[in-house]
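Milestone M4 deliverable, item 7.
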Amino acid sequence: MRTVQAAATDKHTRKPHTNVRWKIGILMWLAISINYLDRANLSAASGDIMKALNINNAEMGIVMSAFFWSYMVFQIPSGWLADKVGHRISMALAVGWWSISTALTGLAHGFGSLIGLRMLLGVGEAGAAPSNSGIAARWFPDRERGRISAFYDTGTKVGTAIAMPLIVWIISHWGWQASFAASGTLGIVWVLIWIWYYNDPEKQKYVSKEELHYIRSGQKKQDGLDKEQPMKWYQLLKFRNVWAICFGFFALNYSIFFFITWFPNYLEQERGMAAMSMGFTAMIPPLAGIVGELIGGWVTDYLYFTRGKSITFSRKFNLVLGMLVGTVILFAGLTKSTAISVALLSLSYAGLAFAAPALWSIPGDMAPKNMSSTLGGIENTASNIGGVLSPIITGFVVSATGSFVSALIVSGLVTLLGAIAFAFWLGKIEPLTLKKHDVAKA
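Output delivered:
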């Protein structure tokens, strides 16, 4: 039996004749795929780079982390800029910047220059996730927010999965420098397509009136119709829910970035795989993540719009269940079987990915008007503290113990703390509003 909420929204669910929003969704997905291809490039090429530049495990951990120093610092400014100048400009600037930085990485000649170039890459890549949060809030009705978040965020897994065999193949033929030049060129092509096609809904020349009505009539909060923002960005930090999603996202990213940074080395050093075998095996967890994420996006929308559950239940169901499944990463290093280890890591990745659509939907659910990119930048700043700490801690633990076992156990425990935060710290999910006395202070 259909729910009252589903029946009530029938008049807004007639499919429009155009699907410009999903074409924009494909461009969002491509941007994130290229984003992760570029950042995973270093991971795939790390063995060759370490030999060529005489870098050890601990130093490579610092190099892998360096990207996140600037990436984290520029999240909030990038989100603020996207909300101010619009996403056509913010995304073109971000992808162009990081693509040039990627291509230049092939010129690195030592530990210091490699750190500098990775930090430059982080400045550009910081703009992608906050911008996509704002684009999703403007271009998609609320009932599709989980699915579009899942769709474009699968680019994080596709980019990682493609990077491993592709970069290994390029390196085997032309050297590690060529892999950075190739992926940088790909980003420049994307920028040209984006500038030609993208604009806000009311300004986009290919969208039909029916699709525009379908989008806007399905939004409780219509971002982009004006430039009004009801609070300063830093006032978002007054809210408990902001801190809860920040900590939970930190915990999720701590484990996710093991796969993006150290997983290829784990397969080579701990499991004794040759380069090409490593490249294809490293695809398996991200592919499992794609399945987990697409299911997660469907589930959170299904619970909310079809089953009539509250937005709080619909988002927290994904968050808590996904993080609990993600904790199996701690068992992956304890088995002697490579196949079982990869299976456990794949299950963990799928669980973490299952939680991700809800996390990326929350800025649109919770942000004040025209501040979705800003809130996305804040939560992604916190998440990338995990990106900073994970490769460094893993590198030093592996150097100290000669094994990845303890590092994987740490990842599992951090993920468990994230599940607890989502279950008990995160409260009712609803738009954030300041009290009258807070407005007066501002």
